[in-house]
Amino acid sequence: MSEDADEALERERASLEVAAAAGIHRLAIPTPFMVGRINAYLIEDSPLTLIDSGPNSAKALDELEQALAARGHAVEDIELLVISHQHMDHFGLASILARRSGAEVAALSGLAPLLAGYGRQTDLDDSLAEIMMLRHGIPPEIVTALRAVSAGFRAWGSAVEVTRPLAADSTLELAGRTLQVLHRPGHSPSDTVFHDADRGILLAADHLIAHISSNPLLARPLDAGEEYLDRARAGERPQALITYMASLEITREMELALVLPGHGRPITDHRPLIDDRFRLHARRAAKINRLIAAQPRTAHEIAQELWGNVAVTQAYLTLSEVLGHVDLLLRDGLVVEHETGGVVRFAPS
Ligand SMILES: [Zn+2]
């Protein structure tokens, strides 16, 4: 192993020790997704608290049980389960854990209906994805295939009832700490981070991840129901990247010793990392601007230009990336949007 990798591992170990000294233990739970393991965090406090659950799979449950046992706990001991956001790798096991433990389930109040109505909500998400993909140039046969793929993934999530809805900017009081509940939308509309101001620790889930740029996926606003589909057909779309960058600006100003993310290693240098992200997005927006300046294109054509075949296999992800950056260009007046026959092309302004 190289010295750099050695040092990185050493820093990771040291950060996890700082968290452990605060009673916070990372439990890395396997997922079937490209992102790899998700970090759930066990907080040994009263109530015994678990932040996020892992996906709804026997393997995730098995490993979670082993990780809990290694700390002398069982699923039945969990008293409070907190859900950070609407992605199934973070909440899929929650209903099983809540049933077995009788734990309270806490989440941002705006997230509660999405979790309770998981099946129907996922239908709406898939319908929105379909509208967006067709509107932005992805061929109909690919859209149909991707909808089947998405349906196949659905069982990694599961509906769960939130028994303790949390207001943004409220606090979650444990015997040994106070966690501020902060809404930081962008990666998803429900992203919630939990701030222990006394210790300078932020439980950040997917709001900030060290080894990958957290992708701002296009998703319905939290308060939008079925009527949003009509608005999407008429051309409205969520401004995920703009929202995300505004959230990162706020996080950047926080005094933090340690950020515990939903994937990968702890973060001790959140400001340079966030500055890196801003530079990355500026570079990518500039590159997309050059592509559009050369010739008007659909978002899907831009994605293919940037990522080749990945633009097909990961069509919605790459579409979200492109549209996020196009939103920056539209905001800055650099490009314009034209629709013909229900398909949108971006052109220089
Ligand atoms: Zn996520």
Looking at this protein, list some descriptive labels.
single chain; alpha/beta; six-stranded mixed beta sheet; globular; binds zinc ion; 349 residues; five-stranded mixed beta sheet
What's the topology here?
Layout lengths: L2 H19 L2 E6 L8 E6 L5 E3 L6 H13 L9 E3 L5 H4 L2 H8 L2 E5 L3 H5 L1 H18 L4 H14 L10 E3 L4 E4 L2 E7 L8 E5 L4 E5 L21 H7 L6 H13 L5 E4 L8 H25 L4 H9 L2 H4 L1 H17 L3 E6 L2 E6 L1
Helix pairs in contact: 6-7, 6-8, 9-10, 10-13, 11-13
Bound molecules: zinc ion (ZN).
Zinc ion binds next to loops.
General description of the model:
This protein is of the alpha/beta class. It is built from 13 helices and 13 strands. The protein has helices at 3-21, 58-70, 88-91, 94-101, 112-116, 118-135, 140-153, 227-233, 240-252, 270-294, 299-307, 310-313, 315-331, and strands spanning 24-29, 38-43, 49-51, 80-82, 104-108, 164-166, 171-174, 177-183, 192-196, 201-205, 258-261, 335-340, 343-348. The strands form three sheets. Strands 1-2-3-4-5-6 form a six-stranded mixed sheet. A five-stranded mixed sheet has the order 7-8-9-10-11, with helices on one face. Helix 9 packs antiparallel against helix 10 and helix 11 (299-307) packs across helix 13. The radius of gyration is 20 Å and the shape is globular. The protein starts with a helix and ends with a strand. The model has no long low-confidence stretch (mean pLDDT 96). Bound molecules: zinc ion. Zinc ion (ZN) is lined by residues 85, 87, 187-188, 206. Residues 85, 87, 187-188, 206 line the site of zinc ion (ZN).
